[in-house]
Predict the structure.
Amino acid sequence: MLTVDKVSKSFTTPGGTVHALQDVTLSVKTGEFVSIIGKSGSGKSTLLSILGALDTPTSGSIIVDDTEINTLSGRKQTTYRASKIGFVFQQYNLIPNLSALENVMLALEFGGYPASSRLDRATQLLHSVGIEEDQQHRRPSRLSGGQQQRVSIARALANQPAYILADEPTGNLDSVTGKKIFDLLHDLSRSQKTTIIVVTHDLDIAGKTDRTFTLQNGKITTK
């Protein structure tokens, strides 16, 4: 269970204070697949970063499985991210000097996955998102944007996280591959009780999730 209680986030800029989030309150049940929609600049990515303990709120609290993650020490937040969270970033964030396979294996290493099983696990994950064997040995610069996104999704799934936080996971994919990724995430939420929170501009995807939250000017307007 994930609970967001009156979370606000403000930034100070040369032009004044920017209120990225304002008293956001929501809850997501274990195994639920929800989407967050809203215009660019509405606070979607900021909220996702706070849920993943990549950023801290100015006020309010985020409680994940009875733990208030925004009050944890930096070390404990790192452990929380490694053990509980799978991130799918809009800009992929793959390590450029590692192959696709090595990127996924590194995530497995950080998550404490047994060394003897990492290669098989990484290969299986990459196949599941449509990355063929010859592509698995390429560095990100030799993969298309869509292929890089699929590698980032495989990496997010590496350690069987309880929560997947995805920022526009199908934004750079063709419709066929996008549907395959969506179906994969949907299956995870049903078969493994993985809680999935997706930020998306794709209203077709949003319409197929269990619930949709709308952010407007940093505030939840529908849920």
About this structure: Helices lie at 44-51, 74-84, 100-110, 118-128, 133-136, 145-157, 175-191, 203-206.
